[in-house]
# Entry
Amino acid sequence: MFDPVIQVVILAAIALFVLFRLYTVLGRGEDNSPVQRTEPQPKSRPVDTGASDLPLPNADNERPIFTGPAAGGLEDIYNADNSFSEASFMRGAKAAYTMIVTAFAAGDRATLRPLLDDDVYEAWDQAITDRETNGTPAFDLLRIRRAEIESAEMDGNMARIWVRYEAELGDGETTRTARELWAYMHDVTANDPNWILDDVEEAK
# Structure
């Protein structure tokens, strides 16, 4: 049996040896230098390309280019109202033609009233009355064959665009081709963006 004092000394020596080895392994790096605590790397910031200093695109570079015989008038309209778009206008003109011709054939005055100028409405209202009185059949719109801008102009604050239509109409028994010029007008200073039918002429 070992002397208890000797056992304590031996155990203490073993403990010191283990602690020393732990210190040498955990407390120093491979190059025998103290291990430094790893600091979190700061998040990289986006590289400043100087894009914020670039000038904004020149609005003149985005101006629409108008062509054809109505180009000058369309340019004047755009100068008076920068929200004007020829493509959007033509989509509306085709939709308006369909709506107006359909409403006229049905005698739908409520639909026609906000779409027509006073003079045009009065003439068409009378035409509906005469048709109803005489029992004359109405011609329905079958299809639009052609729709294109004929001319355009600014008259004070009033923009006016003439559209040439060629359409196929029918009454159930016969069909005919309608060739007409419709003039749409719009006050560029008004809050209402809608155009109304101002005049109708037979196209040559």
About this structure: The radius of gyration is 42 Å. Confidence is low (pLDDT under 50) at residues 22-38, 46-60.
